[in-house]
Amino acid sequence: MKRFILILIWFIFGLSSQGAADEIIRVATGEWKPYISKGLKHYGVCTHIVTEAFALEGVKVEIGFFPWPRAEHYAQTGEWDAMATLVSTPERKKVFNLSSVAYSSKRVFFYLKSYSFDWDTIDDLKDIDIGATIGYKYGSMFENAEKEGKISVQRVPKDVQNFQKMLIGRIKIFPYTIEAGYFMLREQFSSDQAVKITHHPKILQKADYHVMFPKSSKRSQRLVELFNKGLKQLKKSGRYDQMFKESRNGGYVVKK
Q1: How far is CA 111 from CA 3, 139, 144, 200, in A?
Q2: pLDDT tens sequence across 195-229
Q3: pLDDT above 50: residue 16
């Protein structure tokens, strides 16, 4: 009898523990290579961070891909449990609980390794042929200098055209996000071309991205706390930085 009771207690405890470990959160998102994409391993480095951070706290993540406005709407209304990932705005703060910064998108200057380039202030960019993309915002410092004619900027319709122009000497530098830059070089240029290009470590512009949880949901605050706790562990272990290193080296690309 005593043995039976012990087995029963063990069985009940096992079920309750399994239930806690199998909590599921549904996260809506959209395509944004190389950070988030259906076509990448773990759906990209940023989605991987979200799933791993929650996994450390015993929460399983289900990802749903939608057009960005629809994904945000689904998360805001509570149809999905969260949105990954967005920058903070006053409007979003009214309807979402924001996580800690999940990752930062850093825009830097790319240039040919054969070109001796360094900069500290916007004045250092005078007399340098700069490439940029039509419709992109590069921060008030860059935008004001461009409008006032302090820097020479050539804008083209597509990002890839700036790298093409750089390789033939039409421009010297091009501001682009680090991960996206190396992803494009790897995917759209030969290895001989890609190896010629590097980036300057000084950040021109940075944007912080958060996982957003609807304030209308009673689960949200607890989920924010779980994610933040898991994210902190991920960073402390060194795995977080390793993920970005893997992304820049093509580790999330599915081999064909």
Answers
A1: 72, 19, 22, 8
A2: 999 999 999 999 999 999 999 999 999 999 999 99
A3: no
pLDDT digits 0-9 by tens, 21-38:
568 999 999 999 889 999
The reported pTM is: 0.80
- Among 33, 53, 51, 32, CA closest to 42: 51
* Residue 179: CB atoms within 10 Å: 21
Cα–Cα distance, 136 to 132 (Å, whole number) = 8
Token couple for 63: 């990802």
The answer, yes or no, to whether residue 230 has pLDDT greater than 50, is yes
Q: What is the architecture of the domain spanning 106-205?
A: 3-Layer(aba) Sandwich (3.40)
Is the preceding omega at residue 51 within 30 degrees of 0, hence cis?
A: no
Domain ranges of the chain: 2-105+209-248, 106-205
Top CATH class of 2-105+209-248 equals alpha beta
**3-class secondary structure per residue, the chain:** CHHHHHHHHHHHHHHHHHHHHCEEEEEEECCECCCECCCEHHHCHHHHHHHHHHHCCCEEEEEEECCHHHHHHHHHHCCCCEEEEEECCHHHHHHEEEEEEEEEEEEEEEEECCCCCCCCCHHHHCCCEEEEECCCCCCHHHHHHHHCCCCEEEEECCHHHHHHHHHCCCCCEEEEEHHHHHHHHHHHCCHHHHCCEEECCCCCEEEEEEEEEECCCCCHHHHHHHHHHHHHHHHHHCHHHHHHHHHHCCCCECCC
